[in-house]
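Subgroup meeting minutes
Present: P.N., E.W., G.H.
Scribe: E.W.

1. P.N. recapped why we're keeping a running log of single-chain structure predictions: easier to compare across weeks, and new members can see raw inputs and outputs side by side.
2. G.H. added today's entry (375 aa).
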Amino acid sequence: MAVSTLSRVAVVGSAQTMLRASWTELQHVDLIAAAVDAVLRGSGLDMKDVDVVIDCGSDVLDGRSISNCGFLGAMGAHHKEESRVEEDGLFGAVYGTTKIAGGSASVALIVAYSKPSESDVSAYYATLSDPFYQRALGLDHIGAAGLTANQYLTTTDADEEGLLRIAAESWRKVADNPSVDLDRVPSLADIQASPLVADPLRSLQIARPVDGAVAVLLASEQVARRVTDRPVWITGMGAAMDSHFLADRAPGELEACRAAANMAMKRAGITAVSSIGLAEVSGASAAGEAMVIEALGFAPRGHAVDAYSEGATVAINPSGGALPADPIMATGLVRLHEASSRLTGRLGGDVGSRAIVHGAGGLGMQNNCVFIVEV
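Output recorded in log:
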């Protein structure tokens, strides 16, 4: 796929529901319909303009096979081309971008949703582990996060204090995010005092599952220039998958994330990350976020915490990121929504004209996807 073709696809609209620990009064269809209605309202487009609908969710989390068939009406997908991506929503955005870049669609609606409050999240992640050697041990996302955090601390100069600071930064920033529902924002002391769940990680250093939905409209250049005077161009994409077995992965780093980032930046013609003003990244834990920051090139290995200092050139997760709000299967697409909204000025803060967006999936962040977006 040519770089020039990729550069002609844009984000022309995005919207999300409130992210809550539990949406008891709304079901999946309600959350999806709310996000789709919000993204179309005022966009200059309606459902008849949408050529393809791509939804991202999990049959296992939903508790039924082919669960997306029950949501077609809420997504506006009846009598349209519709595809399911059983992975983080950012991978769905890759699919939609490729469809448009290849000329088989002009407008794509990407929808991702999650309602983990109605599921056993640990059981869901256990189904992603090897059924013969790992699942029998009860390995889940928390155990995987603890194992990778230990590797990170023992193979680099990083320390537990740095991981606490990264978590505290995430919780501090989410206090300014009106789309995340919180009873209170924990302090650094609260994080340090929270229960140890997978040594060295405490409960407030693990991504918090939340209910919610997000929708993103992608369009060709011809459509984008017609409906908005500030399209967010997708100039680079990359995706990579690490080994299924945790023990086969490079200890203390995310090689798949680095490969995905290198691919995206090469396609965007970027030679130095210093030209990127905003990073919206997904981390399954404080250590996972640290490894993402290093894989993207914002800090040397073991020194991710330095990228959060006052003098840092990149704004990392002004939204708070995934630690305070992780709508499983939708987290990466929320990051794209956040980045696009900030680049266009819909959300406050000067973050420059270019952002990097990261999404992850699988056990222990096995699968990684990276976008470069620009205005």
